[in-house]
Amino acid sequence: MTQLQEITIKVPLSIASAYNQANDERKQEIVNKITFFLQPITTDQKTAIQQLRQTMAEIGQKAQARGLTPEILEDILNEDD
Question: What percent of the chain has pLDDT over 70?
Fold first, then answer.
């Protein structure tokens, strides 16, 4: 499990108010989003590329498991708007 440390950041009053009024589940979602956006400042480029490739591979595997084929993907990409 990742160790956590509390930090303080300045945000607009409306955001602070919304966070303080949120339930625990919503607060955890907010923490996850902040962590996602701040993660690149702690990750070197090589590691970031590896993580991106891993994420893309996982997405591809899930898409295939749900029935997406190369042909279906090509049809989707070639559809006119």
Answer: 98
Whose structure tokens read 């498991």?
65
> How far, in Å, CA of 22 to CA of 45, rounded?
35
On the question of pLDDT at 66 being above 90, the answer is: yes
Dihedral in degrees, nearest 10, Cα atoms 80, 65, 48, 7: 100
Which phi and psi angles does 23 have, rounded to 5°? -80, 170
Q: Which two tokens stand for residue 72?
A: 């279906």
User: What pTM was computed for the model?
Assistant: 0.49
Give the total residue count for the chain: 81
CA distance linking residue 59 with residue 68, whole number of Å: 11
Contact (CB, 8 A) for 65 and 57: no
40 in Cβ contact with 48 (< 8 Å): yes
